[in-house]
Amino acid sequence: MKPRGARVSGRLALAMATCVWLGLCAGGLRADDAAARGREILGKWEKSVITLRLTMKMRMSAEGRQMQEEESTQEIRATMIDPSGLVVCSLSEADPSQMFAAYMSEEEGYKWEVDITAVKIRLADGKEIPAKIVLRDKDLDLAFVRPTEKQAQAFTAISLSDAGKAEVLDDVVILNRLGEVVNRVASAVLDQIAAIAQKPRMLYVPGPNGQSNALGCPVFALDGKLVGILVNRVVSGGAASMSEDSGMLTVILPTADVLEVANQAPQAQ
User: Is 216 exposed, middle or buried (0-12, 13-18, 19+ CB in 10 A)?
Assistant: First the structure.
């Protein structure tokens, strides 16, 4: 017959093991629930995450003398925010002259100029629509793009009027559209809010998934509401090495701030 103390210890160990098992199961259920909600959000809004093709001429001059000029075409991510075709993206990606200026801020006499000569909205089905940048906000790193001609069809667009909120360590879903190598398929990743800045304005700081090639993309709370759009936050004169320690960080600009600027965008002709 086992001593009474041994029986108590055995029951205590069993109870502890059961608690750990239940905790692991609960954690697994929460993760499964977040994944399921992420798939729902992707299925509903993937057509709203689009690609912009921009052709641009870039010129660099030093002390008034032109040193370099080149033309290139690049693709960036963007989000459709109005059925008429209004698109929002990161200005620092659409027009990198601001980033060049920040990067070269300690180099006197150097100047970068970027002329965007063509813009096309590339939809999820591959259709391309000629467009133009209609509004820029350097402080918020936002650019707004519209088709050059009014479109007959309405686009699948994420509404900015029903904003979501998040707290530190809340799960969020980031939608993206990948590159040509995988046929520009839409993607979704789970991330967490790492921090919330309050000054000089409220900004959400995403975790590592939000810091990876997702500028211009939408970020959702698990309830399906839009938390904001991923943009660059740059402190003038401090981005010499292009890292958060020296003046630049990818952040989530709250939906209400995006809406305030979007309301100023010229209407479709």
Answer: buried
CA angle 92–115–48, rounded 5-degree value:
50
What pLDDT tens digit does each residue of the chain (269 aa) get? 555 555 545 565 555 555 544 444 444 446 689 999 999 999 999 999 999 999 998 887 776 676 677 888 999 999 999 999 999 999 999 988 776 666 655 556 677 788 899 999 999 999 999 999 999 999 999 999 999 999 999 999 999 998 999 999 999 999 999 999 999 999 999 999 999 999 889 999 999 988 888 999 999 999 999 999 999 998 765 444 444 455 789 999 999 999 999 999 998 76
Residue 130 neighbours by CB distance under 10 Å = 11
Tokens of 261: 């600027």
In 3-state terms the chain splits into helix, strand, coil percentages (rounded to 5) of 30, 40, 35
Q: Quick one: CA dihedral 91, 97, 100, 102, positive or negative?
A: negative
Domains of the chain by range and CATH?
A: 47-262 (2.40.10.120)
